[in-house]
Task: structure prediction
Amino acid sequence: MFTRWLKTVALLMFFVPWPAHALLTIEITGGSEAALPIAVVPFGNEGFAPPEDISSIISNDLKSSGRFAPLKQSELISQPHEGQQVNFADWRLLRSEGLLIGKVSSQDGENYQVQFQLYDVYKSQQLVGKRYNVPASGMRNLAHQIADIVYETLTGEKGVFSTRLAFVTEIKNADGSKRYALQISDADGASPRTVLQSRQPIMSPSWAPDGDRLAYVTFENAKSEIFVQELSTGKRQ
Result:
């Protein structure tokens, strides 16, 4: 699989004339008119306050897909954190088809237990419920994973919120020269990290199947070359 992936990157290089380069712009202008109404209730917390607002991350993920229309917090009739606190009749009044609740607890402020339940409001039925133990540093990624679970449960399609983006930025300096940077981030653009900087163009970043390596085309040696870089160590070949 790795060899096939690298051949694909090599093939892309032959179709990119040097020094030409393209700028990719992604713009989300709005969601679908048939977006599914869903209530994402702020997760309750016990003990230490969590380092990330899990419910906001989940809500933003779902909204960005265009397939969901999360209710505004000001529209929420109540804020249940456990199943026995849910009154489905209230949520039907808001025409919310899905309801996500959860809570976060911690004993030391460094490690957390996160649990959630997703309900079908009109069937008054729990669709899925899970519990996780996660360090503070993994809280944001867990929120993306939960958004993926909600998305797949309600649409039948796998979500991509817990994946990462690889992209190239171009900065013009005051003297007219340019600097390029290969960056990675969460799927929502958060937690950006620079992998490589160069005065020469960087192109065609492509993820390896293991998710820990990036292949890309660079012109730093005055010719087009493919490098594969390990993100965990920074080594490249």
Observations:
- The chain is about 20% helix and 35% strand.
- The longest strand covers residues 125-135.
- The chain has two domains: 36-155, 164-230.
